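Records of this kind hold a single protein each, on a pair of labelled lines. With that in mind, the following record should read easily:
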Amino acid sequence: MTLMTKPGVEPLRIEPEAVEEAAKLLYIRACKVLPDDIKEGFARLDGAETDATAKTILATMIENIGVAERMDNLLCQDTGIPIFNVLIGRNVQVDGWALKEAIARGTARATREHPLRSSVVHPITRKNEHTSCGERVPVINIDFTDAERELRLEMIPKGSGSENGSFLQMLVPADGVAAVKRFVVDRVIQAGGKVCPPTIVGVGIGGTSDLCMHLAKVAATRPLGTRCADAEGAKLEAELTEAVNSLGIGPQGLGGDSTAFAVHVETAATHITMNPVAVNIQCHSARRASATFTPDGIRIGF
């Protein structure tokens, strides 16, 4: 697959071997090193927390992060469902099938060679192949950007504690934004401490049922400090963040002000007779890692 090749411009060629190695390293890195924005989020919550028990729990979480990184150990024993987001820019040449196979090989190598706990099983037999791979797993999402000669590979290990905090409702359009707010707040109350708060609450609004659920996960795994590109969505983020943190659920569900780092919203156009709303929650160990392929080499980051 060659995308938007300009005359006289040498396309960026993505080699499967490089993708495989990157996928392996990103899985391990994501499980061991927490992104800076999440660490800053912890510091912000800790500074604002008024409940003594909640402050103790936050301090324990912060110390756990430090110990894991100092000892080159895992942030959480749950290595999750491996999710890879692939963003392909202009003038990029890549074999799509080879890319998919390379990501799976890298995932299996990370699991076996590190080793990582394989959390992936067959949905009916529950058989574990001990590769963190299976039918349609790793989950691979592909999108396109206007970045010149660049491919970005993002790895997100989505643990089951947070992934079990997933909800979808087809709301009545006439009920308006009040119904959206009520649904989100009710689902956060329902999840309580089971999703290992403080969390990032991802909200998808619009699209179809499947797109809406995907948007909620995109929102839940966005870096802290980013805002919804849609002005109404950004406004709703601020209102919902305040509402969620007034619930008193607190860290690990034991009370306090720090229920969520933030509520993130992503939107899509939808049909005139429906209004899908989805919630996907990311736990306090909001792990991710990325590799950006350019003509100058591969940059590793978050």
